[in-house]
Amino acid sequence: MLTTLAAAGLHGDAEVPITVVSLGDIAWLHTPFELFASIGLRIRAASPFAHTRVIGYTDGYLGYLPDHDAYRDGLYESYIALVEQGAADVVVDRCVELLHAHRDRRAVVKTV
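Predicted structure:
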C-alpha cells in the first residue's frame, strides 16, 4: 500500500484531524484511525484529565494505526497501514499536547 502511494507521489507528512471535547474532568479525544489498544492506553495514561476516552473512526477514516509490536511481529495491520512505523509515537505525542492545551485553554476561560 505504501509503495503504491509513494509511486503516485503521495508521500510525506499529512494533516490529521484530531478533536478534543471535555466536560468537567472527562475528555473525549477523537481520531480518524483504527487505533491499537496500546496506543489508546498510552494517550489515556498521559492525559491531564481524570478520565479520557480515546475514540477512533471519527472525522474520516485513515486506516490502522499500528504500534511498534505490530511492525516488529509483522502483523497484518502493519502491512496495510497508510502510515509508516513510528507514526503512532507522533500521534500519541500530538494527542497528549492537544489534551494539555485544551485543559489549559479551559482554565483561562474560567478565570476571565
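Summary: The beta strands are 19-23, 26-30, 34-35, 51-55, 64-65.
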